[in-house]
Design brief:
Number of domains: 4
Number of helices: 21
Distance between the termini: 67 Å
Helix content: 55-70%
Structural class: alpha+beta
Number of strands: 10
């Protein structure tokens, strides 16, 4: 009786799960049809000035978001309930897997990550639909139509080549589990932020294509585009920083950036997006650089699409990449050709007709922003060449070419040094025509602080490495320049304190956001430069023995076997002391996952935010001795602290009231000029 009731219960549960899975699949199909309407009807409405047809875009964008959200929820439900009738769940989940990783397993694979991709795309389109009341109806309709077209392409890709809802004819009792390397809390948040940044640039892309169709780019257009670009840039900054931090503490190699092709795939749109943010400022302030800004918007999202192709085409072998069949790569390549080729063709036809704006002298705020754009674009091109040229040679059966640290460090880094200098000087220049000598003279405090920092570092480090000392000195100079520029704005030490305080209170948030982001860049550069002072020790230790690293004594006290949720671990107890005084106890691990027959490392890190003591446990030899690798890394936490500060600066700038109320005049003018809706 009890066994029969259990069978009935399982049958009802399986039937319920099956209905939810099929509902998710149906929502995905329905979203494709609605996205098709979104990509056609508003575009026709904008061409005919039909307000009713143009309004369809907003309704469709919100409907597509709700449908894909339901599809995403259905796949999550299948993972959480371990529904092994779904092939995707079989291949990437297991009943013993912790609940957090059941959620993250949804996007820890190709099919689920593509569903997350289109979910983020629909979220961006729905946000444009919901928060675009001050946009001219025709421009809004064209923007939503372009996003609908992108959605159609990727929904077709998912449904025909990467369906996450495919069912198994003979479901197994359990699944294969998730890649142990991906079973980490950082992977719960890294992909969503990364994809939000990737896909968020589709809004700027859609605005650019819509402007080309409309034939109008002005200050109002730049003000509409900039907040969406800022939001995407902030998300991508956090996503890249999370991925870097995950690689640092999970892979056990002590580094934070490897110039891996998949890492570069996310870095390239970040560089182009940074240039886009700055060029849109020139369009807003001076109504110039219009065609260049349009091109940057197209290129930024195109690089996001290239990154999607690299990760999913099977041309790369990486811990970050999804190994897939060539059919998927061919489909994405076709999407790339249509999206990138079509937008660039439209740009070639329509961009020459866009009217230029005001003139400006080379030495001016605009000139500094142009220099910023040129250096960032050259840096992006360098990364693009170093990433894709070896792949191109391989595809052409050419010689094998390996591009790594030496190439990027010798080509990319020299381009960034003058860019950092321009970041410090540019805000001190006036618009249209600036005084370079005057700006340099007002930065005298920054020179003194940087020189003192360099001399102190030369003394403390006994003269080297010279480039690392100079890198930290440049970072100190930039931080001091940012503070000096803020002090100039508020009249600090020039006006009475009360007057300076009032100026500081009424300073626009965008100005504060700029200063905070530039200060974060200085912190980041200091952390990167200080990595040259890192020290490493690698020894085979028996229990009770120790090794020295920097000012620390590192003693291996014991190694014990401990059970985990879905693994067993060899956990070391390591005592850290300095001059006989106990500093910390660290517990690095080696984890064995029996389901995948795979071993991973779990590093132990002690940080005081000025330096990290980093310990990784290696393999044991036949005598029971253990390999222990330790690093002392000064200022390495500043790398991620700087990235967080930069993203926070972007958010502060994004909160500026101008982005919420600006450009209403053009909106009213266009709305008044529009004909009445057709009956």
């Amino acid at each position: 009786m009890t066994a029969g009731a259990a069978c009935v219960f399982r049958a009802l549960r399986d039937e319920k799960n099956g209905m939810i899975v099929e509902l998710g699949h149906f929502c995905l199909i329905l979203a494709l049809f609605v996205a098709t309407i979104q990509s056609v009807v508003p575009l026709l409405g904008a061409a005919r000035r039909h307000l009713g047809w143009m309004a369809v875009g907003r309704s469709c964008a919100i409907a597509v978001f709700l449908l894909i959200a339901m599809s995403m929820a259905a796949l999550m439900y299948a993972y959480v309930t371990s529904d092994f009738s779904v092939i995707n769940v079989i291949e990437n989940s297991h009943t013993d897997k912790p609940l957090l990783y059941k959620f993250t397993g949804v996007w820890g694979n190709h099919e689920g990550s593509m569903l997350l991709w289109v979910f983020m795309l629909s979220l961006c389109a729905a946000a444009v639909a919901a928060f675009s009341n001050n946009l001219p109806p025709a421009l809004r309709a064209r923007v939503l139509a372009v996003q609908g077209m992108i959605g159609v392409g990727f929904l077709l890709f998912i449904l025909f080549t990467s369906n996450p809802f495919l069912r198994a004819t003979d479901p197994p009792a359990n699944g294969h589990g998730l890649n142990p390397v991906l079973q980490d809390p950082g992977l719960a948040f890294h992909p969503p932020f990364l994809y939000l940044g990737y896909v968020g640039f589709s809004v700027a892309f859609a605005f650019a294509v819509a402007a080309l169709i409309e034939g109008q780019v002005d200050a109002a257009w730049a003000r509409w585009v900039r907040p969406w670009t800022l939001a995407s840039w902030c998300a991508l900054t956090i996503g890249i920083a999370m991925g870097s931090w995950w690689a640092y503490y999970t892979l056990g190699w002590g580094g934070w950036w490897f110039w891996d092709p998949v890492e570069n795939a996310s870095f390239m749109p970040w560089l182009a997006g940074t240039a886009l943010i700055h060029s849109s400022i020139v369009v807003e302030k001076r109504e110039t650089l219009k065609t260049w800004t349009i091109l940057l918007a197209i290129v930024t999202f195109s690089l996001s699409l290239v990154g999607t192709f690299l990760v999913r085409s099977g041309v790369l072998t990486s811990v970050h990449a999804f190994a897939t069949d060539p059919a998927r790569g061919s489909f994405i390549l076709a999407l790339l050709l249509v999206a990138i080729g079509g937008s660039l063709a439209l740009y070639a036809i329509r961009a020459p007709k866009l009217q230029g704006g005001g003139l400006f002298a080379p030495v001016s705020r605009e000139g500094a922003l142009v220099l910023n754009n040129l250096l960032l674009s050259c840096g992006c091109a360098t990364v693009f060449l170093g990433t894709l040229y070896p792949l191109f040679l391989d595809a052409m059966n050419g010689p094998k070419l390996s591009v790594g640290f030496p190439f990027f460090n010798r080509t990319f880094v020299p381009l960034m040094v003058p860019m950092i200098v321009a970041v410090g000087i540019g805000p001190m220049l006036a618009w249209k025509r600036g005084d370079l000598l005057g700006a340099l003279q007002r930065l005298w405090v920054a020179y003194i602080v940087a020189a003192v920092a360099a001399l102190v570092l030369f003394y403390v480090t006994s003269g080297g490495p010279v480039l690392a000392v100079l890198g930290i000195a440049i970072a100190v100079w930039l931080a001091a320049a940012v503070v000096t520029e803020w002090a100039e704005r508020v009249g600090l030490f020039r006006l009475p304190f009360g007057a300076s305080l009032r100026r500081a209170v009424h300073l626009p948030r965008a100005a504060y956001g700029m200063s905070i982001a530039h200060f974060g860049l200085a912190v980041f550069v200091a952390g990167v430069s200080a990595s040259a002072f890192s020290q490493e020790a690698l020894e085979v230790l028996r229990v009770g023995s120790s090794m020295k690293l920097a000012a620390y004594d590192i003693r291996l006290d014991k190694v014990e076997r401990v059970p985990g949720a879905n693994f067993t671990a060899d956990r070391a107890t390591i005592q850290v002391s300095s001059d006989g005084a106990a500093i910390a106890t660290l517990y690095p691990e080696r984890r064995f996952f029996p389901l995948q027959q795979q071993t991973t490392g779990e590093t132990a890190i002690r940080t005081n935010f000025l330096a990290d003591l980093y310990v990784a446990l290696g393999e044991a030899d036949s005598a029971g001795n253990w390999t222990v690798r330790a690093y002392w890394k000064p200022l390495v936490p500043w790398i991620w602290i700087g990235a967080v500060i930069m993203a926070f600066g972007g958010l502060v700038s994004l909160s500026d009231r101008r982005w919420r109320v600006g450009a209403a005049v053009r909106s009213r003018r266009v709305a008044a000029a529009a004909p009445a809706p057709a009956e």
